[in-house]
Design goal:
Residues 1-17 form the signal peptide. The protein is an alpha+beta fold. It has one domain (2-202). Helices cover 15% and strands 35% of the residues. The chain has helices at residues 2-15, 30-35, 143-154, and strands spanning 19-23, 40-44, 50-56, 80-86, 90-91, 97-98, 101-109, 124-130, 161-165, 173-176, 182-190, 193-202. It is globular and about 40 Å long.
């Protein structure tokens, strides 16, 4: 009985460890600001420390297709998904340092080759780009351009990424999964309706 009670208390603490609060639009170029929803969400750590603020795009074009290993196959590569502000230096899913600041978020797929085995259980990521590099939400990038532009954020050889996982939560909530990753759940507005989305905003993959 005590074990069951402990498990329930642990699960409850994980689910409510982080908090959300609404926030206005970020200080970004006008074209980016116009493409974002009016209100975003600030995600707070369990001690009340701001982790990130995140704004989703007003609408994202989707295409019905099948993509091997992808949880979000309807999203096109380099699609503008939104913007994110790190209130302090953070880490991406690879453990690379993300300098404090605001970035755009573009959808991308991990290459389906042996060089990236074990990085994540699925191929979907949001890549961070600087506002200097990416000031037009309607712009598109080739995969190579996207990877190179994103790599400049962390200053390494790899793109700066946050992992998208299969969504199992209620939109507008934040949870902690069994690996200790902080996951933001949202409903992305697309040309085909709302798309449930789950983004790891804090957590580093074991490599």
């Amino acid at each position: 009985m005590y074990r069951i009670l402990f498990a329930i208390l642990l699960l409850t603490s994980l689910c409510v460890a982080q908090k959300l609060e609404p926030t206005g639009k970020p200080d970004v170029p006008d074209a980016i600001k116009a493409a974002l929803q009016d209100k975003g969400q600030r995600i707070l750590d369990k001690d009340g420390t701001p982790l990130v603020s995140l704004w989703l795009a007003k609408s994202v074009k989707t295409t019905k297709k099948e993509v091997e290993g992808a949880n979000y196959p309807s999203l096109d590569s380099s699609s503008f998904i939104g913007a994110i502000t790190f209130e302090q230096d953070g880490k991406d899913f690879r453990g690379q340092t993300i300098p404090k600041g605001t970035y755009t978020l573009r959808y991308g797929l991990l290459p389906n080759d042996g060089n990236h085995m074990g990085v994540a259980p699925n191929r979907d990521f949001l890549l961070l780009l600087s506002l200097i590099t990416d000031s037009d939400p309607s712009a598109t990038f080739t995969d190579k351009q996207l990877m190179r532009a994103s790599a400049k954020v962390a200053g390494g050889a790899h793109p700066t990424v946050l992992s998208l996982v299969a969504d199992e939560g209620k939109p507008g909530t934040v949870t902690v999964n069994d690996q200790g990753f902080v996951v933001f759940h949202a409903a992305l507005t697309t040309t085909d309706g709302e798309l449930p989305l789950a983004l790891i905003v804090k957590g580093v993959a074991q490599q």
